């Protein structure tokens, strides 16, 4: 039997002790430096707006800056991959959206798995999508839009915040159900897509309500319908797509926080507790409500189960639509 010097044994025991205490100790001192919150879309879109609201609340509560970093591209996959490969210490978080659960099926060669390679923290908000058109388009409802598209083939295109987003999928579902063919123009986020929609470079879009609604209120866009099963409290006058004649047309978006797989559970719990504290504040709830969003309350385990269910749900939609991105 091989014997080790007492000094070596002592070093090993100290290392093991430090590992055993790493979780609780990390949580007790977390955060002791700025935390970055990666967003897979450009600034100005709903993911970015939601991330900045919750990042400020986390920073105020936990005493360190939570800095939002925009890493747009590839339908948010660039940002997600960056976080999947980051050190799992709680100092790199990802503002995940429904997009990532769609991408799991839509993209055939992803370098990460949204379920297996991340630790869920908390769902933050859910929002309806809204069908908006450029005001120059002579349509006031979905029925008129479909008739116009069929009468003017090859004259319209629809924008999205990127391939694989719920905005993209809503557009593909609309094409499938309405029997129309409209070219899809993907952007690196809602903000640049909305800019071109307002400028009539594209003519319609299914956008998240928080980013599109201010432009509707300003008269720069015309809203035709919401994509959820029920009407939105923010715009109760707008019919749903189902009311407009499209059964089972129920598409919504959601946004939450996740971390690289292996992030200490105590750190995850600390961030979750801070998120729940923020979402319980009336002023935060009102800010999200004004944007057409509804706050959520979940444990990390509940959010993880939710993400897994979303991957399965969207896999069915993606396959039925025939949409794919290499």
UniProtKB/TrEMBL annotation:
Segment forming the signal sequence: 1-27
Positions of transmembrane segments: none
Keyword field: Signal
InterPro entries documented for this protein: BUG (IPR005064), Bug_dom1 (IPR042100)
Residues in coiled coil: none
Domain of life: Bacteria
Family to which the UniProt record says this protein belongs: Belongs to the UPF0065 (bug) family.
Name used for this protein in its record: Tripartite tricarboxylate transporter substrate binding protein
Taxon lineage: Bacteria, Pseudomonadati, Pseudomonadota, Betaproteobacteria, Burkholderiales
